[in-house]
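Sample intake sheet
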Amino acid sequence: MDFEVSEKMRTVIELMDEFVEKELIPLEPEFLRRPFREMLSVLGEKRRMVKQMELWAPQHPQKYGGMGLNLMEFALVSESLGRTPLGHYVFGAQAPDAGNIEILHLYGTEKQKKEYLKPLVAGEIRSCFSMTEVEMPGSNPVMLETTAVKDGDDYVINGQKWYTSSADGAAFAIVMAVTNPEAPPYLRASMLIVPADTPGFNRVRNIPVMGHEGSDWSSHAEILYQSCRVPQKNLLGPEGHGFVIAQERLGPGRIHHCMRWIGICNRAYALMCSRALNRVIEPGKKLSDMQVIQSWIAECGADIQAARLMVLHAAWKMHTLGTKEAREEISLIKFFSAEVLQKVVDRALQVHGGLGMTDDTILAFFFRHERAARIYDGVDEVHKLSFARRVLREYQGKRVK
């Protein structure tokens, strides 16, 4: 693969790095103390600044107001913005809207694009993605209890979802529900647009995650669908193709997440090195003089570099050959990058000692909220099993000399 970064992208990344450093990182103490909803005004002003700089919605189509960057280019952007929890939101590149925009762009009707896609890309509304269920295994996405039954010109949806991220304040949800229960497992579910003000769409609560329930975009909700009626025209793509669409959404999404994790690793690594160089542990001696700390710095540096190159290679392969051809690389980066993320953040927190446990730095936030990296979008263990099985099939019956 070609590792050269274009002059255009070098300029874009430099501008984003500077904006993150000067405009967003200084907001983190307030972000850690206040509900996200109370920060919407100041973040809205930052978003307007980003739009004036023509850096808004980097990965979304130019036709709808984005920058139109390809997957490789956005991977670099995601790394830059990932250094702060506010980065992707302020630049209009945040999940779950990013994935929903991809679905609407690929499968939405012209009416759906006008009503939902355009204002979503513009940042005028937000959305949520409703797939994970309370009683069903998230690692097996074809097992769903939520149903959408045809009744006249409508679908009637019943079921319970949770970890519907950013449902608090969202204008609509994209819901995965079983529409064809007699079909083969991978052709049973469909995706439907459900406006949040539809009767029967009930946000039960924001789920407390590691003790924090969050608000607005920075939250995860439990949703109860009770005879929730939407017109059949709200179907996205062909009926029964929900799983196929979900896979298309998840492939690029894993690149986005993994490069965001690399950005977090870079931030935690910088904080760790700075702390080691400045923390006096006895007269004339600092943390950085200890061999164990030097070893951690070397190991974390190697791990970050390895994870970064793996993700960029997966992005390149997906961009050039397609998602199907990059399945093995996607499985590898998902569990490897998540493990590197947890290791680097944990080491950085350890180097900070008691300070690392507080919200006086961003490390405790990363530790709380990024632990889920090893769970969502497929638990690490499932990705490992999937990769190993594919590799072993290639060697089945072969004589290796």
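Comment: The first strand starts at residue 127 and ends at 130. Residues 242-278 form the longest helix (37 residues).
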